[in-house]
Amino acid sequence: MSAEAADPGAPLRRRSRPRIDLRRLGRVALRGPVSRDRLPDAISHVAEAHRAHHPDADLTILRRAYVLAESSHRGQMRKSGEPYITHPLAVTLILAELGAETTTLTASLLHDTVEDTEVTLDQVKEQFGDEVCYLVDGVTKLEKVDYGAAAEPETFRKMLVATGNDVRVMSIKLADRLHNMRTLGVMRPEKQARIAKVTRDVLIPLAERLGVQALKTELEDLVFAILHPEEYEETRALIAAATGPDDPLETIADNVTHTLRDAGISAEVLIRPRHFVSVHRVRRKRGELRGTDFGRLLVLVGEDADCYAVLGELHTCFTPVISEFKDFIAAPKFNLYQSLHTAVVGPEGAVAEVLIRTHRMHKVAEAGVVALGNPYAQDPAAPQTELSDERADPTRPGWLSRLLDWQESATDPDTFWTTLRDDLAQDREITVFRTDGGTLGLPAGASCVDAAYAQYGDLAHTAIGARVNGRLATLSTVLSDGDTVQPLLAQDTASGPSPDWLDHARTPAARIAITGWFSDHPDEAKPDPETADATGPGTRGEPAAATEREAPARSRSGPRPTGVVVDDPNAQVRLAGCCTPVPPDELTGFVVRGGAVTVHRRECPAVAAMQEIGRAPVVARWADGEGRESDAGCRVTLVAESFGRPRLLADLTEAIATADAAIVSATVEPPSEQRVRHTYTLRLPDAAGLPGLMRAMRDVAGVYDVSRAQHPAPAG
After folding, report:
1. 96 and 32 in contact (C-beta within 8 Å)?
2. For residue range 320-332, what is the model confidence (pLDDT) as tens digits?
C-alpha cells in the first residue's frame, strides 16, 4: 500500500505494485470454485502480498473463505458493473499489502456475507471460529428497517464497541471504506458528498488515531477531490508542474546518501512525495511553494541508535533548521508513530525536511495497528484460554477507552453522532499523572474539569478546584503534557457542577456528565438567588446586601466603646473599617474630620498613605493591657478566597455562625475564572476567638485561604 498521491495518474517518484485490474478479477471470480489442491486464481494477488509479510502463513483458510464469499455473492453486482466479489477481494488485498495476519484477511473476505447474503453468523462461527465471527459481526451494518435514521450512528457505535475488544474490526472497516471511496465515481454527486463528509469527520480521524497512515493519506486525497474539486485540481497541476529532471530533493538525497556512507552508517535514503492534501496544507501555510516542498527525505536504518547517529551526521555536515527538530522516538505519538523529524539546508539554500526511522518504525508508521499482527495471540507455551466477549486489549489506547466510556452515556443517537465527531476532531493527546501514581490520557486542551471527570466520574460533580503540580488551580486551568493533577472534591456530595464548566470541558465524558446533571436538576441551570456560583444574594456579580445580625455601628447614638485609649481622653475613637484591628494588633491613629481619631492596624496600607500626605500619627493602645471589649466584643474584617460552587455562601455563613460571630456586612465580588473573593465584617464576643473563626472558615470546602483585610479605608 502506497501512502503517496491517491490519484493514479499523478506522477510518483517511487511506485508500489501496479493497481490490480478488478474487472479481470471479476471474470476470474465468475468461474466459480476450483479444485481443492490449488488456490483460486482470483486471490493469487492476495496470497502473494500476504506471503511477502508472513512467509509461513497457512493459506488454506483463505481459500475456504474465498469459496464461501464467492458462492454467496454470486450473481450480485456492484453499481460499477463489476461482480460484487471484487469488493471483498480488493479490501483483503489492501489489508494484505499492509501486512495484516491471516485471521484479519479471512474476516475481510467474509465481511459483507452476513450483511448482504444468506450466510449467518452461526455459519461463519462454525466454519471459521470465534475470532473471525467476531470480526465479521463487528463490521456488519445494522438494518435501516430496524433503526431508521439512527442506523448509521448506531452502526458506528457498534463498530467502535467491537473495536474496543479487537482493533482489527476498525482495520477492516477502514480498508472497506477506502475501496468504496476509490469507486465512488458511479454514485450521484450528493451521495458522494455525504459519504465523503462522514469519511472526513469519522473514518480519517480514526485512521490517524490507529496509526494507519497509508489508508489515512489516500482517504484524505479522495475526500479532497470530492469536497474541494477546484483546490484539488490546482494542487494536482502544481505537482505535475514540479515534476522534472531538476528536482532539488534528488540532489540533497544524493548528498545525504554519500554523507552517511562516508560515516559508515548503513541507511536507505528515499524521496517520499507528499500527498495532495499535504501539498495543499503547505501551500496554505507558506504561500508560494519551494521545489523541496513537494516531498520529504526518508532515511531508513536498522536500529534505534542508528537514527540518532544519522541525525548527528546530518546536523554536522549540513546546516540544520533547529526549529523543525522533533523527537517522536523518545516521545512517541499516541497513535504508535515513532520517527525523528528534522530539516537541513542543501545546495543553494534549498531546505529539505527529513524523516529518520527504523524499518520497523516505518512499517508501524504506514500500517499502525495492522502492523502489530494479532494483539490477542496467545503464547503457545501458555495455557490456552477461551475467547470472551469481555476480552480487553492491554495496549488499548487511552482515546479509545475514553470513547467507550462516554458512549455509554450518550443514549441518544444524535448526541452520540455529534459528540463522536467533536471527540475525533481532537487530533492530539496528552498524558497527565495522578497523585496516586496512575495516569490519565486526555485530548490536548483538556482542563482540570476533564481530569476530574476522567478520574472520578459522576463524583466530579462536587469538584471545587485542583492542584496542578502541587499548586492550587482553578478547574478551568488547561493541562499540559506531563502535569500532575489532583482534583479536589467537596465533602458535600449533594452539590453540583457550575454551568461555566461546559466552557472548559473538552472531553465528551465531562460534557455529557455535566449536561446530564443539569437535565436532572433543571432548576440549578439558572443562577440561584442565594447560592449560585457563590455570588451571594442579589444580582450575579453585584455585592451582596449587608446581612446585619446587629445594626451597623454608625446607626447607634453616641460613641461606641472600642477598648482603645488615645492621648486625648475626650476624643471620639473608632476602629478603621479597612483593617478592623483586634487585640493584640499594634495600633496607630489619625485625627480625621470632626476631631475623631480613627485607629488602624500598624501594617495597614492606609497608615503609609496618611503619612505620605503629612498626617501626624496619634499614639493608640488597647485599654487595660488586655485589649478586650467585654461589653461589645471586637469587630474584624476577613477576606475568604475560594473556588466558586453552589451553596458556598450558605456554608461559609454557617461556619461563621457556629464560631459565635455576628455578620455586620458581607460583600462577594464577581467570580473570576471560578475564583470568588468574599469580604466579611464580623463582630466576635472576644478577640481570642479570631484564630478559631479563621480555621473554621478555611475548613469550608472550596475555601483555600482566609486573611485579615488589607485595603485602604474610604475617605472620611
Report:
1. no
2. 988 889 888 887 8
Residues 127 and 64 sit within 8 Å (Cβ to Cβ): yes
Instruction: Give the whole-angstrom CA distance, residue 326 versus residue 533.
Output: 43
Of 393, 680, 655, nearest to 536 by C-alpha is 680
70 is catalytic: no
Distance of CA 240 to the CA centre of its chain: 38
What are the strands, taking DSSP E only, across 5-158? none
d(C-alpha 465, C-alpha 473), whole Å:
6
Tell me how far apart the terminal alpha carbons of the chain are, to the nearest angstrom. 83
Q: Cβ neighbours of residue 361 under 8 Å, at least 6 residues apart?
A: 329, 338, 339
Report the distance separating Cα 30 and Cα 226, nearest Å.
32
pTM for the full predicted model: 0.62
CA distance 163 to 104: 13
Asked whether the bond before 584 is cis by omega within 30 degrees of 0, the reply is yes
User: C-alpha angle with apex 541: 538 to 543, nearest 5 degrees?
Assistant: 60
Mean pLDDT, to the nearest integer, of 184-201?
A: 91
Q: Are 161 and 407 in contact (CB under 8 A)?
A: yes
Decide: helix, strand or coil at residue 575: strand
- What pLDDT does 710 receive? 61
User: Of the given ranges (103-107, 552-556, 620-624, 691-695), which has the lowest mean pLDDT?
Assistant: 552-556
Phi, psi at residue 489, to the nearest 5°? -110, 145
User: In angstroms, what is the C-alpha Rg of the chain?
Assistant: 36
The answer to whether 505 and 450 are in contact (CB under 8 A) is yes
Closest CA to 134 of 382, 398, 390: 390
The cell numbers describing 332, all together, are 512517541
Residue 620 backbone dihedrals phi, psi, to 5 degrees: -140, 145
Q: How far apart are CA 428 and CA 424, in angstroms?
A: 10
Contacts of 116 (CB under 8 A, 6+ apart): 73, 76, 84
Q: Of the listed 48, 115, 254, 492, which one is catalytic?
A: 115
* Cβ atoms of residues 310 and 356 within 8 Å: yes
Q: Give every CB contact of residue 380 below 8 A, 6+ residues apart in sequence.
A: none
C-alpha distances (whole Å) from 684 to each of 499, 587, 700 are 37, 19, 19
3-state secondary structure of 118: coil
Residue range 97-124, pLDDT digits in tens = 999 999 999 999 999 999 988 999 999 9
DSSP 468-481: ETTEEE-TTPBP-T
**Phi, psi at 269, each rounded to 5°:** -110, 120
Largest CA distance in the chain: 123
Partners of 219 in the β-ladder: none
How far is residue 146's CA from residue 82's CA, in Å, rounded to a whole number? Answer: 29
Q: For residue 429, what is its C-alpha cell? A: 493527546
Phi, psi of 624 (to 5 degrees): 60, 15
Which of 116, 231, 603, 669 is an active site residue?
116
Please give the helix or strand (H or E) that residue 664 lies within, else none.
strand 662-668
Phi-psi region of 493 (alpha: psi -120 to 50; beta: other; left: phi over 0): alpha
Known catalytic residue: 116?
Answer: yes
> 587 with 565: CB under 8 angstroms?
no
Residue 528 above 50 pLDDT? no
Instruction: For residue 317, give the H/E element and its range.
Output: helix 304-317
- Which has more pLDDT, 345 or 529? 345
Helices within 150-289 (DSSP H only) = 151-165, 168-182, 189-198, 204-209, 213-227, 229-242, 248-262, 276-286
Task: Give the distance, in angstroms, between the CA of residue 460 and the centroid of all CA atoms in the same chain.
Answer: 18
